[in-house]
Design goal:
The chain has 4 helices and 17 strands. It is mainly beta.
Length: 385
């Protein structure tokens, strides 16, 4: 076990020991669910001028899938399990406005693996926030390794997504962890994000600024009886061949609204990578069959590229195309990508602990002899504290 892992283990052990001590002093009628929801916050005192809060957190996502399909004239199939996410970290609020956060990825093996070990930091930053900062109602400014929230699905934490995996078009522009300066603000019920990032890749902690830069802007506001989020990213990486951002610019518009008992997230994305334009549409309706316990979730995704072998390019596919590669079959590519997903989510204790199942159809066509088509069955267990 290497030094980063040792440090993380020590931090988590200390936090769990404090939790056990606190739990022993609590009333006997506290349930396991109450403990799961509160065990992370080991210290809180807003009146302390030095340290206001200490919090530990973690998530564990385990999943299984079976895929069966055909790619470029070759049949393939495969099944297996995976430790999709294992993350642990801590945050400290101090000096009446500062916050430091570190969250590490502890799933080490990747696809079709349940190996555990430190691999990288998911997020690692320090920020300062206050009401009235820079003239906003609320604002914070920070520096470090951040998750870039771009697109409707990426704005939702993996703890709370409705489908086992996010869509291909989301993964084409999302799942980025660059180093940068991030301003978050709220004014008149509109939430803003403005950021400048280094495009230089670093697989573990903070990157340098020897390459190009990327700019991000985002705004979320209420409109048309729902919520609207507009995102934009521009990346200048002409001097950096290993850029975090493998596109030149991208824009996204998301509308989220409840229609009676059905919640609908709709997202449109358009971007450019060199001479290639990429755009797509995602619609995610969901509703409870049994309130707060059993939920039906659906998703349709359409993606298109002006390059006939341009979609999907994301390497983060965990289903059909990854199984094809595991079976020694080429993954296929084209200019049109369709996926349709239907699933059931059973909430043992809200998003804190749940079981997810789903079936997904995917097809890629456009390039002669390089299409792919097939079905994937999903099952997942997810929990966090």
């Amino acid at each position: 076990m290497n030094k980063p892992t040792n440090k993380i283990a020590l931090i988590l052990s200390a936090g769990l020991m404090l939790n056990l001590f606190q739990a022993s002093a609590q009333e006997e009628d506290q349930t396991w669910a109450d403990t799961l929801k509160t065990m992370g916050k080991v210290y809180s005192d807003k009146n302390n001028p030095n340290i206001q809060e200490v919090k530990f957190f973690g998530r564990a996502h385990y999943q299984w899938n079976y895929s069966d399909g055909e790619s470029a004239g070759n049949d393939f199939s495969g099944t297996g399990d995976e430790l999709r996410r294992l993350r642990a970290g801590a945050s400290v609020k101090f000096l009446d406005g500062f916050k430091a956060l570190a969250r590490a990825n502890l799933e080490k093996g990747g696809f079709r693996s349940t190996s555990i070990g430190y691999s990288s930091f998911d997020e690692l930053y320090v920020e300062y926030g206050k009401d009235g900062l820079f003239g906003f109602d609320k604002a914070s400014i920070g520096y470090g390794r951040y998750k870039v929230a771009f697109g409707g699905e990426e704005h939702v934490s993996s703890k709370k997504i409705k489908t086992v995996e996010r869509s291909n078009i989301n993964n084409r522009f999302g799942s980025l962890r660059p180093t940068g300066i991030v301003l978050k603000a709220e004014q008149n019920d509109v939430e803003y994000v403005a950021a400048i990032y280094s495009t230089e890749a670093d697989s573990e902690t903070w990157s340098n600024w020897d390459g190009g830069i990327a700019l991000q802007g985002s705004a979320t506001f209420d409109a048309m009886e729902g919520s609207v989020t507009a995102d934009f990213i521009y990346a200048d990486h002409s001097s950096n061949d290993q850029s975090v951002f493998d596109f030149d610019w991208a824009t996204s518009l998301t509308y989220n609204r409840a229609y009676g008992k059905v919640n609908v997230l709709a997202n449109a994305t358009f971007g450019n990578a060199g001479s290639e334009d990429i755009y797509g549409l995602v619609v995610v309706p969901s509703f409870y069959i049994v309130q707060d316990k059993l939920e039906a979730a659906f998703r349709y995704q359409w993606g298109h590229s002006t390059n006939e072998t341009g979609v999907p390019k994301s390497s983060s596919s965990r289903g059909l195309r990854r199984v094809a590669r595991n079976d020694g079959v080429g993954t296929g590519s084209g200019d049109v990508n369709h996926t349709a997903y239907a699933g059931l989510n059973y909430y043992i204790e809200g998003d804190y602990m749940k079981v997810m199942t789903g079936v997904e159809y995917e097809s890629i066509d456009g390039a002669r002899g390089k299409g792919v088509e097939g079905l994937t069955l999903w099952a997942a267990f997810r929990t966090y504290f």
